[in-house]
Amino acid sequence: MPALSGLMSVMEKAARKAGSKLRRDFSEIEQLQVSMKGPADFVTKADQKAEDTIFRELENARPDWGFLMEETGEIAGKEGKPRFIVDPLDGTSNFLHGIPHFAISIAVQDPKPDGSGWGDLYMGLVYNPITDESFWAERGKGAFLGHKRLRVSARRKLSEALVATGVPFKGHGDIEEWGKIYAAIAPEVAGIRRFGAASLDLAWLAAGRYDGFWESGLSPWDTAAGCLIVREAGGFVTDYRGRSPAIADAQLLAGNDQLHSRLHKLLVGALK
């Protein structure tokens, strides 16, 4: 059982602090659903409050590091220092509609040694405030749910695979492309799920709950932590062309070694 490193302890403390506020705010959503104003403004404030809480905690611990955050954008750190990549509320639509499936995602990315941009991910944390589940990984040390070691599923047959995805919606994603991929994959697998929080989709894949995942049009804060957690759990994460960027976001396909290969073959065939 690994002890949390000092930095991971800081990240988890920040996530839990923000998560307790999100839980309180979430309990107000039900009442807001029937109000004339509606809950959208409230959720925007909850999102921002969570990000502010995380930022303060992390900045206090690492004052010279940079940040890339969903709400605030990029904050440059001292040259040569890592950066935090933060999504304070992944699954905003679920939160808005009173669906208890959302998460906080925090990752650490190192700069490239030659200073030409951003390199490998070093740490990742996905925290679900409702279930109090903390999925985390450190590069080279494995992936964990709390103190339990995570491994991707051992399933080899597509016919037994449960695959997650994200579905395009108004203003987001390519519905034509997604439809082609869905038409190729759905008839071959045991089921497809769309739960609405990519960070949790990836964390659940690392835990063996899902066997595969695909989505496009995401942002770095949606997937950074999840990409590392899946890889440290023994899984593969690539774009649709089979390349393995540190953060797959514009296109993302993930699974164990056997199923990733088979899903990739179906996906490529669908997009020819």
UniProtKB/TrEMBL annotation:
<keyword id="KW-0378">Hydrolase</keyword>
<dbReference type="GO" id="GO:0046854">
    <property type="term" value="P:phosphatidylinositol phosphate biosynthetic process"/>
</dbReference>
<dbReference type="InterPro" id="IPR033942">
    <property type="entry name" value="IMPase"/>
</dbReference>
<feature type="binding site">
    <location>
        <position position="90"/>
    </location>
    <ligand>
        <name>Mg(2+) 2</name>
    </ligand>
</feature>
<dbReference type="GO" id="GO:0007165">
    <property type="term" value="P:signal transduction"/>
</dbReference>
<feature type="binding site">
    <location>
        <position position="222"/>
    </location>
    <ligand>
        <name>Mg(2+) 1</name>
    </ligand>
</feature>
<dbReference type="InterPro" id="IPR020550">
    <property type="entry name" value="Inositol_monophosphatase_CS"/>
</dbReference>
<dbReference type="GO" id="GO:0006020">
    <property type="term" value="P:inositol metabolic process"/>
</dbReference>
<dbReference type="InterPro" id="IPR022337">
    <property type="entry name" value="Inositol_monophosphatase_SuhB"/>
</dbReference>
<keyword id="KW-0479">Metal-binding</keyword>
<comment type="similarity">
    <text>Belongs to the inositol monophosphatase superfamily.</text>
</comment>
<dbReference type="GO" id="GO:0008934">
    <property type="term" value="F:inositol monophosphate 1-phosphatase activity"/>
</dbReference>
<protein>
    <recommendedName>
        <fullName>Inositol-1-monophosphatase</fullName>
        <ecNumber>3.1.3.25</ecNumber>
    </recommendedName>
</protein>
<feature type="binding site">
    <location>
        <position position="89"/>
    </location>
    <ligand>
        <name>Mg(2+) 1</name>
    </ligand>
</feature>
<dbReference type="InterPro" id="IPR000760">
    <property type="entry name" value="Inositol_monophosphatase-like"/>
</dbReference>
<feature type="binding site">
    <location>
        <position position="87"/>
    </location>
    <ligand>
        <name>Mg(2+) 1</name>
    </ligand>
</feature>
<feature type="binding site">
    <location>
        <position position="70"/>
    </location>
    <ligand>
        <name>Mg(2+) 1</name>
    </ligand>
</feature>
<dbReference type="InterPro" id="IPR020583">
    <property type="entry name" value="Inositol_monoP_metal-BS"/>
</dbReference>
<dbReference type="Pfam" id="PF00459">
    <property type="entry name" value="Inositol_P"/>
</dbReference>
<keyword id="KW-0460">Magnesium</keyword>
<dbReference type="GO" id="GO:0046872">
    <property type="term" value="F:metal ion binding"/>
</dbReference>
